[in-house]
Amino acid sequence: MYYGAIEAGGTKFRAAVYRNGEKIKEMTIATRDPETTLEPVACFLGSYPLKAVGLGAFGPIILDENDPDYGLITETPKEKWRQFNIYRYCAERLRVPVYLDTDVGVAALGEYFAAGGTAQNIVYVTVGTGIGIGVIVDGKIFRGAHHPELGHLQVIRRDNDRHPSVCPYHDNCLEGLASGRSLTDRYQMTPEELASVDDVWELEGYYLGQALFAYTLAFAPDKIVVGGGVADQENLLPKTRKYFDLVNNGYYRYRRMSDLESYIVLPLRGKDAGLYGAYRLAGGGE
User: Fold this and answer.
1) Is 237 inside a domain boundary?
2) What is the pLDDT of residues 97-112, one digit of tens each?
3) Tens of pLDDT along 109-133?
4) Is residue 262 located within the same domain as residue 276?
5) Is 243 helix (H, G, I), strand (E, B) or coil?
6) Are residues 139 and 62 in the same domain?
7) Cα angle for residues 33, 38, 40 (degrees, 5° grid)
8) Does pTM surpass 0.85?
9) CA nearest to 125, candidates 94, 146, 150
10) Do residues 204 and 198 make contact, with C-beta atoms less than 8 angstroms apart?
11) CA spacing 20 to 30 A to 37: which of 112, 205, 249, 260?
């Protein structure tokens, strides 16, 4: 039985085919305009006799199945994708059931299954071009009237931080001050150059530590997983745990949080968390 998985990110699209729980083939393409990006993805997946496809897409995106615009990408900074219905395109082209959630929602789901029952409640934070959050509550992707948009959580600026936010909507949100776009805009350095600049990770940790504490207050997760390209920097999580602890100030003392190195962690599935989660979303692995 073959299942398809699509991780539709703001920078790149990844697609994969799974069989019996194993990824047998995948492709990656840069995110351009919808047609140029999705046509080769549809051709790749369409060459297999798929039972279903799981799709994790960047947003904001409408996830209410009762809404006539289900699957519509709305006010994204990627102008060519605004008002594009990615679900409808994939369902019409692939002609198999398509199961949809956000890219970070399916990454959170992938980490839930990777944890093998050791964590029922997970917050997954992806720090890349933007910042997105997926939440697993009792083994299911959390969603209210819409998906969580906690990348736009308001944070307290560091006193000496006067750099403009890169978010077009908010001056002091996490994404505007701590995303990959913000790092590039602030420092005008390559990722390799940024790796050795300690103040970069002090600032990142300062903002992420605040946010992760707020997510802990809101969702009381078993663990917080931090993924995305920026999370690859080895200095990020130690700084984030440091500022999380400072903001907590001894308040939370639950067992799960007694060791922050096992509470704030990297993805068990690494860069494949999203693809694997999309596969599981489609019904694979049951």
Assistant:
1) yes
2) 999 999 999 999 999 9
3) 999 999 998 999 999 999 998 999 9
4) no
5) helix
6) no
7) 120
8) yes
9) 150
10) no
11) 112
